[in-house]
Amino acid sequence: MLTKVPSLNWLRVFEAAARFENFAAAARNLNMTAPAVSQQIKALEGYVGEPLFERGPRSVILTGAGRAYLPSVRHALQSIEITTAALFGEQKSAPVLVQSVPIFAASWLAYNLGDFYEKHPDIHVTLTTANQVEEFRFGYNDFNIVFGGGTLPVAQTDMLFGETLVPVALPGTAERVNGPDDLLDYRLIDISSNSAGWLNVFNQLEPVDLGRATFAFVDNTITAFSLAVQGNSIALARPPVTDFLQKQYGLVPCFPDLAGASADVYRLIAHPGRVMTQPAMRFRNWLLGRASEDRPLSREQG
């Protein structure tokens, strides 16, 4: 069983050999000798237990295993190069590591992050996502942005804002929804991983026969919006966090003033085991200030 990352030099030589399809050309690019390149490739092949190249008299061709391996190797090397340049190059920038639930990252934060970079050009945010609390890497990041109604055993938690639930659809569909019963003529897209959904919306309405309703379940709002733009379906927007994404998809509310209540909130978490750096503190102050501008729009609870 392979338990360690292969030598970085092996991977660098492998990527160059794959790029040039020639050991001698790779050697010139890397300022090495061709025998040294061949030796590094053999060492990597011995480590993974499979040939990565088919050798010819004047060139080499990747095997199936080599072709499968190359994208990950190339991505890893490029990531190291880019991060090194960002941190230690002439245009140095300080990192802030943030892990967020996907919808917050893809919609609200993506829309607002340009404002942060404009105000803090010397800081770059490394953003990753996780959907469930158990997937978050709480000790590694400067901050985690989580969603839900429970509590977490951490020292510092800032509430960003809550959410409401608003039925949205393509304009042609929305125009035909004039009352609660009209919703039942369409497929209603719900998020299986969220505690609040269509039932919260119907609780705000006069009683309807839910036995007539057709539901479809997905695990995130991005997929729900993608289904809604295909027509004959209605998704739930979750303002304010989905406002930007909703506009991007061209979805509009189905009828005015219909909104379901949700007790869930978005929270920013910092951890006692990680010292908050000056860049992280500046990001936190910016995020809390920006979120406070949207907070009156979210009928948050508690």
Account of the protein in words:
With 302 residues, the chain is an alpha/beta fold. The chain folds into 2 domains: 8-88, Arc Repressor Mutant, subunit A (Orthogonal Bundle); 93-302, D-Maltodextrin-Binding Protein, domain 2. Helices cover 41% and strands 23% of the residues. The chain has helices at residues 8-20, 23-30, 34-48, 64-88, 102-119, 171-175, 180-183, 198-202, 221-228, 243-249, 278-294; strands spanning 53-55, 60-62, 94-100, 123-129, 143-148, 156-169, 187-191, 214-218, 233-237, 252-253, 260-270. Strands 3, 4, 5, 6, 7, 8, 9, 10 and 11 form a 9-stranded mixed beta sheet that branches. Strands 1-2 form a two-stranded antiparallel sheet.
Task: Provide the fold topology.
Layout: H1 8-20, H2 23-30, H3 34-48, E1 53-55, E2 60-62, H4 64-88, E3 94-100, H5 102-119, E4 123-129, E5 143-148, E6 156-169, H6 171-175, H7 180-183, E7 187-191, H8 198-202, E8 214-218, H9 221-228, E9 233-237, H10 243-249, E10 252-253, E11 260-270, H11 278-294
Parallel strand pairs: 3-4, 3-5, 7-8, 7-9
Antiparallel strand pairs: 1-2, 5-11, 6-9, 6-10, 6-11
Helix pairs in contact: 1-2, 1-3, 1-4, 2-3
